[in-house]
Each structure stands twice: as structure tokens, then as C-alpha cells.
Amino acid sequence: MNMKKIIITGVAGLLGARLADWIIENQPEYQVIGIDDLSGGYRENVNPKVNFYCLDIKHPAVKDIFEREKPEYVFHLAAYAAEGLSPFIRQYNYQNNLVASANIINECIKHNVKRLIFTSTLAVYGYGEGGLFDEAQTPAPIDPYGVAKYACEMDIQIAGEQHGLDWCVIRPHNVYGVKQNVWDKYRNVLGIWMFQHMNGEPMTIFGDGTQTRAFSYIDDNLEPFWKSAILPEASKQIINVGGIEEISINEACDTLIKVIGAGEKRYLEGRHEVKHSIPTWQKSVDILGYKYNTKLQEGLKQMWYWAQTQPKRERFVWPEYELDKGIYSFWKNEKKFTRRHISRGR
């Protein structure tokens, strides 16, 4: 039987790996084709039933994969989502978020995929309106990561208008859970805290911790992600997907300390970031049937249990910043080691 095929970029990262698991378990008529360069995602994350290509998506060989596999749908999830670090690695940020996405968009057009699903970010909103982020707002990002993602969104929409590409843009927020990269110190605050505690360090908070976010457990997102590909109602829609509770960074840290049964906080200097990042969510419910099933404490219990079973891995530290001017003290004077790339799997 000739199986229908789906490509997932960033398949070794949190979103890609868990989405692949869900499709394999729930949509057996589809074969998952995964692409990831394993520069920060891990091969162990990738379901053994995935037809896996270890490749940087900027590489010309991506063309061969599309030609060979002929996917019906493409989930473009690969990104280096270190928002706070992006002002100090501008070239890398644009190469691996914007230029890399252009390569995927081209192939989707050439091969007439039924729909491209692109994971963007709440960072496109900037400060939003009154701390709330609604899909109808005009984005105004405040950092290069948000700029790159918004540029990708615009390019995809142009491809839809000019080349007939069908698409859906998902803006997930603060997704966490099993298979997250807890060894990257620049992104995913819940994973950073877990790594710090397991290594005898305090859990660090930038500023006073009163910043608010809406955290989203990965498993609550998987079926809505799938529906963003197959439902006619999701065609050419931009949709916030994720948690609906407004939680301060202090509260999130206290919740993790409660789950672990130990831990202490350490406050560092504030950084350039949005104070309150709370998305509207009704559109995800109406179109994708999103359900907020997993509150933060329960999600952290599952993630913490998993994190303790993981092998000890060396933590990634950026080998050299493109720009040192204005960099925060907590990223200065670090012991650095060289690594081939940095993960683009979330």
C-alpha cells in the first residue's frame, strides 16, 4: 500500500518529535518523513517509525527529499527559538529562521503540497495591546527573532497569493514537556530551571519575576496541530495555540519547586523583553478544537519525571556571540565549547 506522506522539519525537537509520535499513533495511513540536523535536538527523541533525514534544511539536498517523498502536508517546525539571545546573533537568527524557511517554502510551492503548517511565535506581537495578543492585531516585534518569524509569515502569505500555496500559521506559546531540550541555557525557562536544579544550581529569574506568560503542555497541542493541516476551516488562518492561564514567572518557578520538593530562586538583571505575553485563545477552540487539559503543575510533574531519566549531557554554551555590546552579565565570561550548530528543533 502506498502510504500518504508528511514532512516534519525539526523532528528531533520537542514539537516535531511529539507531533511525529502522535501522527504515528493516531493516523497510521500517513508515513512521517522527518528532517533535523541533530544540532541540539536528539536522535533518541525521534520515533523509530519516522523515515529520518539528518540534514540542515538550508542544504540543497532538501530538494531531493521533496522530490523523492512527495509529501501531502509539511509541518515546518524547525527554528532556533532563543528570543532573548537573538539580538546578539542576528546573522545566525536570520539564516536559520528566515533563509531556511524560504528553502522549505520554495519546495512546498514546487511540489504542490496540500498545506504548509508553519509554527511562528508570540514574539511577533511585540508588546501587543494591553498585554493581550490577538490574531487580528498588527504584529510589531521587538527583537530579531520576532522579526524573522513575522517575515516568514509574510513570505508564506505572499506564496499563497502568488503561487496558490495553502497554509496555516500557528503561534504556539511557551510549550513545554517530555522531549524538550533542557540542555540549552538560552531558551525554554522551565527546562533551564530543571537543568539548574539537577546540577546543584539555583533557578535563575531575569528581573523581578512579575512577568506573565501562558504555558502550554505539549500533549494538549498535538491534535490541534494535526487539525491545522487537514481542516478546511484552518486554510490560510493565523491561530494562537496554547495555554490560557496567566501565570507569573515567580509563580511558575514556585510551582516547579513544589513539584520537585526542593529548589531556590536567584534573581538576575532584567533583560529586554515583553512584560506580559498573554494570547487570546478562542480561535484555536473554534477552529481546531483546542482543549486546555493540562495545568502547569501536572505538566511539570510529567516533564520532571522524564527529565530525571535522561542521560547527562554537556550543556550548550554559545561559542562566540556576533555582538558583545550590551550583552547581559549572565551570558558573559562563560566557559565556551565549540559545537557544529545549534538546534533548530524546538
Please tag this protein with its features.
34% helix, 9 helices, alpha/beta, disordered C terminus, globular, four-stranded mixed beta sheet, 15 strands, 346 residues, seven-stranded parallel beta sheet, single chain
Structural summary, described in words:
There is one protein chain. This protein starts with a strand and ends in a 39-residue tail after the last helix. It has helices at residues 14-26, 62-69, 90-110, 144-163, 189-198, 218-230, 249-260, 282-288, 296-307; strands at 4-9, 30-36, 51-54, 73-76, 115-119, 132-133, 167-172, 175-176, 203-206, 212-213, 216-217, 237-241, 247-248, 265-268, 276-279. It has nine helices and 15 strands. The protein is an alpha/beta fold. 34% of the residues lie in helices and 17% in strands. A seven-stranded parallel beta sheet has the order 3-2-1-4-5-7-12, with helices on both faces. A four-stranded mixed beta sheet has the order 6-15-10-13. Strands 8-11 form a two-stranded parallel ribbon.
Rounded to the nearest angstrom, the radius of gyration is: 19 Å
Principal-axis shape: globular
Percentage of β-strand residues: 15-25%
Structural class: alpha/beta
Indicate the low-confidence ranges by residue numbers: 335-346
Could you give a short account of the major beta sheet? 7 strands, parallel
